[in-house]
Amino acid sequence: VGGLYGGLLAKAGYPVHFLLRSDYAAVRDQGLRITSPLGDFHLPAPNCYACPSDLPKVDVAIVAWKTTTNAALPEALQACCSDSTLVLVLQNGLDVERPAAEIVGAERVLGGCCFLCCNRVGPGQIQHLDYGRITMGEYGASQAQVSQRMLELASDFHAAGIELQLEPDLRAARWKKLAWNIPFNGLSVALSADTRQIMEDPAAARLAEDLMREVATAAEYCGGLVDEAHIQRLLSDTRSMVPYDSSMRLDHRHGRPMEVEAIFGNPLRAARAAGYEPRKIAMLYDELCFLDRANWKAVD
Amino acid sequence: VGGLYGGLLAKAGYPVHFLLRSDYAAVRDQGLRITSPLGDFHLPAPNCYACPSDLPKVDVAIVAWKTTTNAALPEALQACCSDSTLVLVLQNGLDVERPAAEIVGAERVLGGCCFLCCNRVGPGQIQHLDYGRITMGEYGASQAQVSQRMLELASDFHAAGIELQLEPDLRAARWKKLAWNIPFNGLSVALSADTRQIMEDPAAARLAEDLMREVATAAEYCGGLVDEAHIQRLLSDTRSMVPYDSSMRLDHRHGRPMEVEAIFGNPLRAARAAGYEPRKIAMLYDELCFLDRANWKAVD
Questions:
Q1: Angstroms from A290 CA to nearest CA on chain B
Q2: 0.80 cut: is pTM over it?
Q3: Are B244 and B194 spatial neighbours (Cβ–Cβ below 8 Å)?
Q4: Cβ distance A184 to A174 under 8 Å?
Q5: Does the complex come out with an ipTM higher than 0.90?
Q6: Touching check for B203 and chain A: CB below 8 Å?
Q7: Which of A283, A284, A295, A296 to mutate to test the interface with B (most CBs of B within 10 A)?
Q8: Distance CA A131, CA A34 (A)
Q9: Please, are residues A119 and A247 in contact by the beta-carbon 8 Å criterion?
Q10: How confident is the model at residue A143 (pLDDT cuts 50, 70, 90)?
């Protein structure tokens, strides 16, 4: 996610600074290679850093790593944020802006949901398969609004060829995104299946839809709205999508920790706090907690 | 199950006739080898048959193969049943006596739930690990009762060293057994885990208990009773059990079809017909349907 959007912004001439972990050496030596329906491109020498303290101060800090890496967030944000830096959190899940808000203050945080099929296929190599839209909103705003700074960010993203949609209600947008992530990230791991295998099997497709409806009910209890038209659109988009391995499935397959708490634990706890028990989401959460731990034990 | 109980009856001197499939040649040539906490033993030359039509008429036909083999039931029962033969169905699940009842008449059918840890570990080789009790009841009886013929069967089984408990209410006994099979057979496949791995993980153990409580509620709707003491006993027995791979997990691992309909589909449909929707059992059923089909595709 960071490689794709950062790459597009850099290609458009914006000064982008990449904080990298395992891909640092590859990107420093060979640059960043992106294949995309928007056009393949190669950035031969992007600004890249292995160490957070080397980062310069920036206008906008985009947090695009997995929530499972958030332990490194304080050091990274303290390094690159001035008093006026905005933080745009592009992670999956619910309440994923909270860690950034605790560091720089909620009023400087925005969040975005990314609708894209995109995988890292090798060191410094990104394969963007389909979609690409971001829906972005204010996190700390006391009321639903489209702010001036949202419009300015949108203008830059549009100039880089990125579809960015402004959301007056970020939390509602988060629930809409969860309506896809909860069934398809979860079942891709629980069933070891890609999106097409799930949608082509009657039992798995029914279960995906059941989970989606539990997300809709949870959203309703929490003040969001995932309406029937949205559910039908997600199902039909997923049916016609190229067979896709969710990032959670790739993480699990490669022995990396999964984003179980951001994508399942936080929404489950929010639903319960609002008085609703989503039983199938709770079951999927328990299954994923087990599979995540079993995976770590297997790798040890 | 058939090898163990049939083996114990044969060892005690009862005339037992084994209908075998893939193990036929091994048992014919090398006999039946059983390791068991009741004492290891070897039957060098048991009566065994590969073809149902070779079976003699018997007093009691014990149906101990998987429900997934039931397509062969009519031929087998027609071969070995006289007008007075009793059929004892020792399969797992709910309504598993119905196919036999449709062939010989419900009034000649009894059912039994086997509580045992027992695996076929090679051709003609059975490893009985733990437990061994059967709870048996009348299937076609118009009211709950312990019949004279139940007492006679019990006397023979006891003489062979088999713990057999008489149940006035077979259907209630079936639900009590399902309270173990539904969580532990199902999760062993969904989580690729043995009983100990499930019970030692907080999320998996919580999920097993949730599923057990849904079975208890379903039983209540269907006129059975799975009380709190039974739930606590099952949980504590499973916690202290040697790590056990359920037969369903072994079936799945070896690319054989799983007993999804008998153990999950039938109870789920019974609960729904009685007005209760057990959401986690329904989810597990959908997952297992998918995994079963995916497994067959992988073997193809």
A1: 6
A2: yes
A3: yes
A4: no
A5: no
A6: yes
A7: A283
A8: 15
A9: yes
A10: low
